Protein 1
Amino acid sequence: MRRLRLPLVTPFRSAAGTEHDRDVLLVRLLADDTVGWGECVAPSAPHYTSEYVDGASEVIRRFLVPCLGSVRRAAAPVAGDVTADGVAAALAPVRGHRMAKAALETAVLDAELRLAGHSLASHLGAVRDRVPAGVALGIAPTLHDLVEDVARCLDQGYGRVKLKIEPGWDIDPVRAVRERFGDRVALQVDGNGAYALADAQHLARLDPFELVMIEQPLVDDDLQGHAALATRLRTPICLDESITSARAAATAIALGACTVVNVKAGRVGGYLEARRVHDVCAAAGVPVWCGGMLETGVGRAGNLALAAMANFTLVGDLSASARYYHRDLTAPFVLDGGFIAVPAGPGLGVEPRREVLDELTTAVQTVRV
Ligand code: NPG
């Protein structure tokens, strides 16, 4: 387990707090001679969901790695004697902590796929080799700053922009962007649970701006509230924090709480559960898109593979590495005509650069299964 501190190009502010640096936890699994990597997306503080990076680190070391011993005994040997398919069941005695579990499962999956010579994209059933890039813009100091940032993003080739909103920063920024750029930009907003059902009338003022969606306006456990809000807005509702599993996605859809789903592997416990979320949504005719958590190249590689699946028909929070990091842990992902290439190499298809790792590492811990 390796902790690293990566300075962000600019601080990222949302209703869930401000990140100045990314405090990253990487898991490096060594199984015989095979290596696998996983990035834990838990932020530094528990403001987005209850998970945070120190807690994730503790739960991996103290509770999750010891659970992996049971896969070791039970599973058929593929990578060493641990297979990614068995990881979620082995970790099930620990409740929650999905971001921590996802990091561990991804490291096992990466090792297994590297050994087999298969890419994560092909393993998940990807249907494309590049995905359109989208950008998420944090709450800006002024409307002028925001509009300038949108202009730069459009110049760089991003075709879809998501604005972070909160009470006091919602209608005006959306209006400012629409007035300046018209329908040249596919626009959506993300409330990170900062609103109440009593704000329905206010949020309905977003309807005339033809947003692609409003994401997570209410708190994560208020599915009924989202369903009620959906009857009062024309703007489609997307859920993020509420969707903790494929079952949660099925429930939210059945209740009419959302018509779009944001899929984040970390939030649902790993890429294998993320694929199940994709499948549940596809079966219900609900389009999905890939969310982002300010990942380094390690996590970004996995997200690109996920977003290459068929029902990821909406543009995700998948930006070039340079949007967030001057220097990424892996070779940077770049925009090419508004698209980012899906890694094709074995496993995640990326290799963290030793000299960058060494320079940015703040702590290393070794745990044995
Ligand atoms: O492009 O990686 C990205 C950022 C996308 O807005 C984004 N992420 O609420 O979805 C979110 C938000 C986030 C970032 C949440 C960091 C938690 C931590």
Protein 2
Amino acid sequence: MTSESGGPRCDRGAGDAAGHPAPRESDPLRRFAGIWCRAVHPLAATTMTPEEFEGYLLPLAHRLSAALRSSPFDTEAAYEVGAALVDAQCTEPDALPAILGVIDAHLVSCSSLGLPFSVPSGESFPVPSDGPSREPLADEEARARCVRLQHALAAGFVRELRERERDEQEAISRAAMAARTEAEKALHASEAKFQAVFEGAVIGVGIAGLDGEVLVVNDAMARMFGGMDFFRPGRNVTEFVHPDDVPGAHELYRELVNGERDHFRIEKPHYRDDGSELWTNLTVTLLRDSSGAPQYQLALAEDITEHRLLRERLRYEATHDELTGLPNRTLFLERLDQVLAADADAERFGVCYLDLDGFKAVNDSLGHAVGDRMLKAVAERLQRCVKAPAELLARVGGDEFLALVTGPAAQADGAGLARRMLAALAEPVRIEGRELRVRASIGVVDGLAGEIGRAEVLRSADITMYRAKAAGGNRFEIADADSNARVIARHSLTNGLPSALEKGEFFIEYQPLVRLTDGTVRGAEALVRWLHPVHGVLGPDQFIPLAEDTGLIVPLGRWVLEQAARQAREWRDAAEDDASLRVNVNLSPCQLSHPTLVSDTVAVLENAGLCPSALCLEVTENDLIGADETALRPLRQLADLGVDIALDDFGTGYSNLSYLRRLPVSQLKLDRSFTRGMQRAPADPVDVKIVEGIVSLAHTLDLAVTVEGVETAVQAEHLRGLGCDTAQGWYYARPGPPERLHTLALADAS
Ligand code: C2E
Ligand code: CA
Ligand code: CA
């Protein structure tokens, strides 16, 4: 930027150069004002003529020129000039650049003629060393000052413009208030102001007659609905109904046009011109005439479509399962709550709680990707069973699904739905060339809405599903109070089981084993009991299966073994004659396959100071059916150490007698069912024959035979005659405390 660019255009008049008072035309600042006026007047929304406008600009030019030469230099005047230009309506978008362009090009040249700058010391410009070289330096200084004046002017301009906009906005909102609260002002006295609100508003504004005919809408409203064409003449707001209109919207509208209410606000869906959906936050206000009679309706609409979509997406994500796209537990429970809260006489409902059988094995052996695909396939098939609007299927956990049916009795049939779901899963699922069988257990709860709570429904469904599983799976069961109570009792026992061992709630009773030839006590079987804090003494049949299910049988079994071994040691210490009293301890299949069985047993015997031959471990026949050599190895090791192994409940399984040869057992315990027929004379001849056969076979295989359940003398005598070695039963003694065995053994000895 140099002064040359400005020089030739701002015709430096000779008069000025000579220093004489210039005529008006030749006054450089008047010329400046003229140039300024020509550049800016077309861009100003002013009502002034060009001459008037130039007259307005001249003092401003003087102020700028004076500021340029001020000492010390001060830009305040330029700031005020900026504001003054806004006041003169120079507010079109191009006005400011034009204003600054003229200043940049002409101010220095039009100001500096014959008027030397005073350069205060300390300014960053080099201090002139001699008179003649002043002019170029002064020019440079002038250019710098001019730039700063432009900045100041722009700042003042923008500031003023902003203030004015704010004032305008306030005026608009005041007008809006007036329009809404004092209808007659809006429509008559404040017509102009109202027009400003109407056109400038960002929100959609529309006015319709009381009959609903659309009279006028602003641009924002038209844009929202996809163009002005939407509001073509003759359109009526009553046409803008949408099937999803909030209930009661029509009533609100009717009240408004009847003058019974002044306004209402709703979220309302509409169709745009192109058929797409638009959601608005709509406020409709009644405008009355000066006498107070309803005249028009004013609608203010805010487009909340995006907002709503986002809200809907978030809601969808919160209520659906990502993997299968099915509703999740949250949504299911919402629906269930609605159904259950319905009027009691209204509806029946059925809930099916489905859990896949053996899904964990699929996941573990084939991987989670296959597991996920299986779940998707299952979800699709189940979804096909649940199609009616009154039905709902949800995935509520890894491999758990809940289905709901509602309606009149015939339709709300949980069992029917369960049957359909099982049928839908009957065909294997094909994944990566594999055919995977899908099995599921379903608990069905049917009921009458209003009569049962959500928690109870879910608990009952859960328990019933569990029953279906316990019954072998791939089936459904229907909830009933009795079975629920049984399962709940079982559950409550299971809950108390883990802590029972620590709390010392178990104890052992011993039942004598008697040698049939001479009636002497040879030992006893250890039988565990649970002194339950609530239910009293529980027999092993009531909790051993639970302990097996929960894995607690391993520590419990070890505890029984320890107690029994210590007890046997005590008996032996107390016995005077010989050290032959033995103890029998039952082993569960879980213990059999437990890796530390052998080492634990050896340690227990050592700790108790008991020789292995004083211990007999009882294993049921069923637990050994099909066991291969690997499975039998621990037992064989124990047998090799000298521990006796007895085959318990013999005769209740289906074992092949020749199979006995392969087992490391030294005793058979003949089940009570075989000896029952010999309780009274004459004995059942078939039973007699069977027992005879078994005893002879056992002896051939070098196995001793113990008979269980001997309740009468007749029976005992008969069994002795058949060659049985040992007997156990109420005839001799019921299971009891360990001290009693000692007494019995002593009685034998005497
Ligand atoms: P089991 O091994 O067959 O035990 C014999 C069962 O028959 C005992 O029932 C005993 O009380 C009962 N009994 C004995 N004599 C007679 C009789 O003359 N008539 C009748 N009607 N019954 C008689 P209990 O004590 O209820 O034991 C049931 C089962 O629990 C036992 O059957 C055994 O398999 C299991 N069990 C007991 N204690 C343990 C243990 O510590 N660990 C394991 N794993 N199982 C145990
Ligand atoms: Ca036993
Ligand atoms: Ca038995």
